Amino acid sequence: xxxxxxxxxxxFLLWFSIILLFSMIVFLVISFYSTLLVTKKLRYVVIGLMVxxxxxxxxxxxxxxxxxxxxxxKKWIRxxxxxxxxxxxxxxxxxxxxxxxxxxxxxxxxxxxxxxxxHHQHYCQWFYNDKIINQVLGGNFIEDFTEDTDASMIxxxxxxxxxxKYEQEILNHKKDAIYKIIRFKVNGxxxxxAAVYDPSKIKLAVSKWLGRSGQYIYDMAKEQNAVxxxxxxxxxxxxxxxxxxxxxxxxxxxxxLVTNRLDGGNIIGFNYDNVLLLTKNQGGxxxxxxxxxxxVTMTPFLIVNGNPxxxxxxxxxxxxxxxxxxxxADGIVLFLVVDSNEFRSKGASMVELTEIMxxxxxxxxxxxxxxxSSVMVENGEMINxxxxxxxxxxxxxxxxxxxxxxx
Length: 407
Hints:
Elements: H1 3-33, H2 40-66, H3 75-100, H4 105-116, H5 122-125, H6 130-138, E1 141-142, H7 165-171, E2 179-186, E3 189-196, E4 202-206, H8 217-223, E5 226-231, E6 250-253, E7 256-260, E8 266-271, E9 276-279, H9 284-289, E10 292-298, E11 301-304, E12 307-308, E13 311-312, E14 322-328, E15 333-338, H10 350-359, E16 362-367, E17 376-378, E18 381-382, E19 400-405
Antiparallel strand pairs: 1-13, 2-3, 3-15, 4-19, 5-17, 5-19, 6-7, 8-9, 8-10, 11-12, 11-16, 14-15, 14-16, 17-18
Helix pairs in contact: 1-2, 1-3
């Protein structure tokens, strides 16, 4: 082999061995924290490739030192590939620090978001074992309330004379307005807060194919002449790929039981006095006895009787597109929808949902279904931007929605 070729070989081996070495370091470290992506058997292959990369690195240094007086590549090519190789090595180190370093923010975000809201839980199971996942979930949770809502706290004649700027956003509206939408940002994502001034105009809509298929919320809104709508409660979603046909728990529409199960969380809805009630799911008959006229099932509660939930960390639900419902002491109902970003890596946590509801005066508030289901519809058109698991800008069929009508 010519000396010039050996010099080139030395440079090639240097770049290749560094890339191989740092790649194997990443996989080796991951193998100590999770056996899903790198099994114990595969770990030995990784160690073997690490040894090979070190041998190649030594050989590369030998060739470079031995033939150092011979020209090889153009200077700009040498610099370009050397910089790219260095960036790759630095990226591998940064990736490991992000996953396993002393700052837990990324780890907590990945685990809580993947385990609670994302379609593929293996996103975090690739990198963490069950022990680590359970430790993180144990440090990020929202505590259940032990009390139900006190309907007497709602006074439809209440007037706040010392309104702050958030109160003024709610209270300053056109005469005879049914609702008002306030727009702002949460973690760089669009958020929409609708203040509904007459809760008697809020009703529950259900898919016309309930039990067979969900329905797009904008179709439900158009068919029922709704001027405003948000998605409702949770639904059975095996494999995160269902058609949204079957609501979980208890569903009540116009005082009639639609579904009656004990799964899926607690009950959220309105009584005949147009007060938002939040109660534990004790079955459909208990919900009817409690006075519900329209209700869905979901969890968690965010505020009950003016008291915010105790939330540890980010609440254990991670960050995602969210929908929430609340009611102020003056009876005004709040619909809240927060979008995610185009990569579904941002949105709102339960902490932020609670803070927003408190900021705008809610004394009772609860989380509704989130993710791709999170939609606000005005006059038959979506005004937010839902994103599905394939990163497509579209929503999905759902079984229930809270709608506002002019009737």
